[in-house]
Amino acid sequence: MRATARAAHQERRAAARPKRSAAELQEVAARGQALLGGSGIGAADEASPAQVAAWAAQEFGVHLAVACSMADAALPHLISQHAPWVDVLFLDTGYHFAETLGTRNRVELEMDVTVVDVRPELTVAEQDAAHGKDLFARDAAACCAMRKVEPLHRTLGTYEAWVTGVRREEAPTRANTPLVTWDEKNGLVKINPVAAWTDADLTGYAEEHGVIVNPLLNDGYPSIGCAPCTARVAPGADPRSGRWAGLDKTECGLHT
Known about the structure:
Layout lengths: L1 H13 L7 H15 L12 H12 L3 E4 L6 H7 L6 E5 L6 H13 L3 E5 L5 H8 L3 H4 L1 H17 L4 E3 L16 E4 L4 E4 L7 H11 L47
Parallel strand pairs: 1-2, 1-4, 2-3, 4-6
Antiparallel strand pairs: 5-6
EC number: 1.8.4.10
GO molecular function: 4 iron, 4 sulfur cluster binding; adenylyl-sulfate reductase (thioredoxin) activity; metal ion binding; phosphoadenylyl-sulfate reductase (thioredoxin) activity
Family: Belongs to the PAPS reductase family. CysH subfamily.
């Protein structure tokens, strides 16, 4: 039955209307901001994550994608309640923890979503040959650009909107994250339904709905990226301090 439902979703996508123009999508983003954003970022009348998800599913249908790092499956779960078999984009960098790949596989097998592996142009071996071994240790920004930013940019070109799990409390660089915005860099609408969620909100949602969670979250890794660039975090420390530890880098470039 799952295979039949997934196939039906792919048929709907193949028969869907053409992707709208950038100008049309900018107008959609503006309407979404007015409808869901309340009186401002973080305002009491901001729409709930479920309301944002429902709007996104209705507005974009099969032209919607969800980005997921596989730290947990809360975001895919939230969106799939309104858009079953939605495409979930997983950045398969070639450097992931085994636990992250295991979480990805469980999401594909157990949830009503369509996991899409987004891969770089070069394999790790090809990148080593072209740019030297372990580029991440010498130029983390360049490595992220090749293995995350470019592949995602290329893939997002086929969609009208993407949903992210960015939350305002994660880092100062994310403190002003809106629920809906126009993503100029990628040329589509960007939706952040859980922007207002705290860590407790995320944990509570996962527990309430039995959401799949990466086991590394309970092993000292509150923020999970590529294995070579992710370290355990001391209790009470900044959750993202384990990402690119020791470097003047806090973002991979996907959201900046």
